[in-house]
Amino acid sequence: MVLQSIKMALKAILASKTRSFLTMLGIIIGVFSLVVLVSLVNGATGYVTDSIDTFGNDYLELSVYNDKGLPVDDEELRNLEKMEVINELTPELTTNATFSADGIEKKGTLRGVNSAYFMLENVNVEFGRDLNTVDVENASKVAVINLKTAQELFKKNDAVGEHFKINGVEYQVVGIQNDQDGSFTAMITNEGYFVYIPQTAYLRQFKYDTDDGGYTTILLSVNGDVNAAKDELNDYFYKRFNNDKDAFSIVTMDELKGVLNGITTALAVVFGGVAAISLLVGGIGIMNIMLVSVTERTKEIGIRKAIGASKKSILLQFLIEAFVISITGCLIGLVFSYLFVGLANLIVQLLDIKLHFDIPFYAILSSVSFSLLVGLAFGIYPANKAAKKKPIEALRYDG
C-alpha cells in the first residue's frame, strides 16, 4: 500500500512539474542556506584555528587597559625577561602611517617591534632578513615590509636594499614578509600594507615616551606549562596594578580558540535560524499546494472511497505526497549545495588560499530531518482534510 501511495504521489507531482518545483523552492533554499553557510563557517573556522595553532601552545598576549600610573616601560620589560617563566617577549606598538617611494604613496599599518616578534608571531621573511637585536639597540631606520607593500611601492617582490619613507622619514628595506605562507599573520596582512620597524626607532620617530604612556600590548612565549605561567603573570600584574583585575588581561591560544568557537556557535545558530525560516516558508508552500491538490482531486477521493478505500489509505496517500515534495526539495538543495561548495573550493584554490570547505555530515542529517519534519507538520492537515471527506459529497463536487 505504501509503495502504491508513493507511485501515486510521484504521478501527481509530475503531472504539474512547474507548480511542484515552485512548491519545493522554499525547501531547496532552506537546505541550500543551511548546508552552504555551515560549510563556509566551518571551513573558515578550521583555517583560522589551524593558523592559530602555528603560534604554539606557549604563546601569551598581555593587554594593559589601565596602568594605574605604573606604565609598563622598558625597565619593566627587562624585569619580565628575568622571570624564569618568560622565554621571549616583545612589545607591539601599532599606528596608521603613510608609506611612500618614487612618487607612490600608500596608507597602511606600522608596527614597532623587537627581534623576538618574528618568531612569536610566526612571520615568515621570504627575502632578506628580519629585525635583529642590533637594529633595536641602535634604533636603526630599517624595516621589514610585507609582499604587497613591496609590489605596490617598488613594483617587484624582492625590494631588499630599497629606500622608502614612513611619514616622511627615510628607512631601508631589509626583509620582505611572505604574505602567502598560510600563517595567521599572513592571512591578516595579505590584504593590506604592513611595515615592521624596531620599537626604538618607532619610539624615537613618534616621540612616544614609555615612561608616560607605557606599552599596552606585549606578546610572550613562556617556559613550562602555559597555564601555570599565566597564573604567575596574573599574580604579578594583579599586584602591580593595585589589585585591579580589570586593568589588564592575559590570553592564551586555547582561550583565543575558545572565543573563536563561541563566535562560530553563535553564527551557526543565526544561520540555522535563517535556514529554518526558509524551510518553514517552504512548509507553508507545501501545505498550500496540498490543500489545492485536495480540492482539485475531490472527485478522485470520492471515487476511491466509494470503491472501498479506507480513511487511513487516503490520509497516507496525501501525507506521502507531502513527504515526497519535501524530501525531493531537500535532495535538490543538497545537490546545489555540493555544487556551490565545490565551486568555492575551486575559487580559493585558484587564488592560492590555503582554505578548504567540507560539508559536515550533521548539516546533511539536520537538513534531511528538518525537511521530513516540515513535510509531516505541513502535510498532515491537508491529508487529514482529504481523509475526512464524505464519499457522496466528494462525488457531487463539480469544482
Descriptive overview:
With 399 residues, the chain is an alpha+beta fold. It has 2 domains: 2-52 and 258-396, no CATH class; 67-243, no CATH class. Helices cover 57% and strands 17% of the residues. It contains 14 helices and 11 strands. The chain has helices at residues 2-14, 17-53, 74-81, 117-120, 133-137, 147-154, 184-189, 199-205, 226-240, 253-296, 298-306, 311-350, 361-387, 391-396; strands at 59-64, 86-91, 93-101, 104-113, 125-128, 142-146, 163-166, 169-177, 194-198, 217-222, 248-252. Strands 3-4-9-6-8-7 form a 6-stranded mixed beta barrel. A 4-stranded antiparallel sheet has the order 2-10-1-11. Helix 10 (253-296) packs across helix 12. The radius of gyration is 32 Å and the shape is elongated. The two termini are 28 Å apart. The mean pLDDT is 81.
